[in-house]
Structure formats: structure tokens, C-alpha cells
Input
Amino acid sequence: MNKYLKPMIIENADMPEGVYMASGTGTDSENAKNYTVIQKYAGDAYNLYEQFQIVFSDLPQSGVENEFRVDLKVSGSATSAFAFNGGSCTLNGDTLTINFKAWTNYMDFQINCITHDISIS
Output
């Protein structure tokens, strides 16, 4: 199977509709450089974690399985991290490594902390 970076439209006269979509898995590290990290939940005195979403605006929202790795710098009292949808993440010192593999252009993740002082760059 061929791997495409983006969905491709192929015209085929033998098909009843005449057009169908072909897509596949792509590794798009160049477009993964453009991202935004949004804090979704700041935690409270009883929940010592903060939740974030990383959005890759240059990647398609669906139709292609995106796969790549991004390293972020974390400051504060972070103790561990994990991903929710479509990937994994690991915290090693002040480096958060996100391994993204999903049919979307975003991923939610959580950072556990001692106090609510997390910042990401």
C-alpha cells in the first residue's frame, strides 16, 4: 500500500460516483513543527494534575493517520505524564516527549504535579 502525506482525489470513470478518496499513513514531521498547547484543566487542591491539548494546525483533522514525535520543555513540579487519545508521552527531567499517532490533528495529555506550577514551552 502506498503511503500518502495528505488525502488524494483520484478520478476513476469505472466508479459509479466517478471520484473516490485515497488516504494512508503519513509521517509529517515538518508540519508537526507548527503547534499550539492549550491548558484544558488547571487542577485544584484535590486533583494534583493539569490537562493540556496539543493542536497541530497544519495537519489534516481527519482522513490521514499522522505519526511523529515532539519534545516540549516543562517547568514546575511535574512528576509524570500520560496521553489520552492517539499517542503516548513520557516525562524525563524537564523534557516531555510526545509520540503522536492518530487520525486527528490534536492530542490530550495530563501532567501530574506536586503543586500547580506547570508551564510548557
Notes: The longest strand covers residues 65-75. The chain has one domain: 25-120. The CA atoms of residues 89 and 98 lie 4 Å apart. Residues 25-120 form a domain with the Chondroitinase Ac; Chain A, domain 3 fold (CATH 2.60.220).
